[in-house]
Amino acid sequence: MKKLLLLAAVAAAGYVVYTKFVQDRDERDLWAEVTDTFE
C-alpha cells in the first residue's frame, strides 16, 4: 500500500512540474513573439 501511495505522490509531483514547465515555455514563446523586432 505504501508503494502505491508513493507512486501516486511521485506521479502527482511529476505532473505539477511538467505543467509548470509547459506554462513557462508558453510564456517565454509569447514574450519572444511580442518583443521581436518589427521589420
TrEMBL record:
Cross-referenced InterPro entries: DLW39-like
Protein name as catalogued: DLW-39 family protein
